[in-house]
Write a structure and sequence with these properties.
Largest sheet: 2 strands, antiparallel
Helix content: over 70%
Number of helices: 22
Mean pLDDT: 83
Membrane topology: Multi-pass membrane protein
Subcellular location: Cell membrane; Membrane
Organism: Ideonella oryzae
Radius of gyration: 44 Å
Number of strands: 2
Pfam family, one: HemY_N
Order of helices and strands: HEEHHHHHHHHHHHHHHHHHHHHH
Strand order of the largest sheet: 1-2
Oligomer: single chain
Distance between the termini: 93 Å
Structural class: mainly alpha
Protein name: Heme biosynthesis protein HemY
Shape: rod-shaped
Low-confidence stretches: none
């Protein structure tokens, strides 16, 4: 299309020239001293146009000749800049290929060339990226001193902005990989609130809190990660359970245990695994009454739980059996009628009946518990000791010694 337009314009110019110059009879006379030169106006205009073109070409050639040193200098600067950019890309590629020594050397050469390229020296992003590549390579090479030096240079060049936030996150990640959870927490605390809620920052905070032994802080962080879909549903549930149980296990007295329990979410307090962990810890602290009080509402809704949940509650009840009263008897009868094939339910019912001195009901259940290899050793040992006590009450010392020997043989 463009060529057609130019062709039309050329035809128009030819028509105009033919119309204007075709019948031009004017003359141009040039006088110099005693000399006179006459020429047609058409020839004069063509000569004038040629002269202008010659002068323009001469000026262009002179300008090109005079600017040759400048253009040569600019070409050399451009060549250095391109070489520096190529080295930066090479360093990043070497780092991805796990050739960390080469990546560091390439990044350092890029910085050296940057110092010689005047325009590139003002590019802070180039400097920061080169220092970060070098620092990342040094981190993989376990040269922490040189790594921190490169990281400091990157922070000094960057100033502020999203890259600065990225440098802090990278520093926190490296601190976590160095098993320095305290430094990781300190670096994360320097992040703006919005950045601190990002998934990567929350993951690092979770790891640091767990390493520092702060399960409540880790639990809150894990809950935020689960809200932001940082884990799958199953992994989030398992992690939240584990952290809640760890927080309960760290309680050293009744006040601490109650404070941790109240600090948990309602959903955590309804979880069978967390509830069982709280009851077991209460029993370990001599607070069996509190433990069985926590277990009671869950046992009333036992049919809503799966097999693993029922097992956890049953084993926790065995630990808190010293505090059970008569209201547990019909509950245990109903549980046996529904889940009498589950060893943990059998163990809990046997322990409750034995505690209430219902020896006839308890004996068979305790014998089943002692023979159930899938149950924890402490539960089986407890059942064997109760069986030994029952045998001694019946003056059967041989049977009692047999039960004691079986209990002692358990790990």
């Amino acid at each position: 299309m463009r060529s057609v337009i130019w062709l039309i314009l050329l035809f128009v110019a030819a028509v105009v020239a033919a119309s204007v110059f075709g019948q031009n009879d004017a003359l141009v006379s040039l006088f110099y001293g005693h000399w006179r030169l006459d020429m047609s106006l058409n020839l004069f205009l063509l000569a004038l146009l040629a002269l202008v073109m010659v002068l323009f070409g001469t000026l262009q050639a002179a300008q090109a000749l005079l600017s040759l040193p400048t253009r040569a200098r600019e070409w050399r600067q451009l060549k250095r800049e391109r070489a520096a950019q190529a080295l930066l890309r090479e360093g990043f590629g070497e780092f991805l290929a796990a050739r960390y020594a080469r990546a560091r050397r390439a990044a350092q050469k890029a910085l050296d060339l940057q110092a010689e390229a005047l325009e590139l020296t003002q590019d802070r992003n180039f400097t920061v990226q080169a220092h970060l590549i070098a620092a990342s390579a040094l981190h993989r090479l376990q040269d922490r001193g040189a790594r921190d030096e490169q990281l400091g240079l990157a922070q000094a060049c960057n100033g502020s902005g999203s890259t600065s936030e990225g440098i802090l996150l990278l520093s926190a990640q490296w601190a976590m990989e160095d098993r320095d959870a305290g430094r990781c927490m300190a670096l994360l605390s320097e992040l703006p609130p919005g950045v601190a809620r990002r998934t990567q920052a929350l993951r690092l905070k979770l790891q640091a809190a767990r390493q520092l032994g702060r399960p409540m802080e880790a639990l809150q962080t894990a809950r935020l990660l689960a809200k932001h879909q940082g884990f799958s549903v199953g992994a989030a549930q398992s992690l939240l359970r584990s952290l809640a149980v760890d927080a309960l296990e760290q309680a050293l007295d009744e006040s601490q245990l109650l404070r941790v329990w109240q600090g948990l979410d309602e959903a955590d307090r309804r979880d069978a695994w967390v509830l069982a962990g709280a009851a077991r810890r209460a029993a370990q602290l001599g607070l069996s009454q509190q433990g069985q009080a926590w277990l009671w509402p869950a046992w009333e809704q036992l049919q809503r739980l799966d097999g693993e949940g029922r097992e956890q509650l049953a084993l926790a009840l065995v630990a808190c059996v010293d505090a059970v009263d008569t209201r547990w008897l019909p509950v245990m009868e109903e549980a046996l009628s529904r889940y009498g094939r589950e060893p943990a339910i059998v163990a809990a019912a046997g322990a409750v009946f034995a505690h209430r001195q219902l020896w006839g009901k308890a004996r068979r259940l305790l014998e089943q518990t002692a023979s159930a290899e899938g149950l924890p050793s402490r539960v089986r040992r407890q059942a064997l000791r109760v069986l030994a006590r029952i045998a001694r009450q019946e003056d059967d010392e041989a049977q009692a010694s047999h039960f004691d020997q079986r209990a002692a043989a358990l790990d």
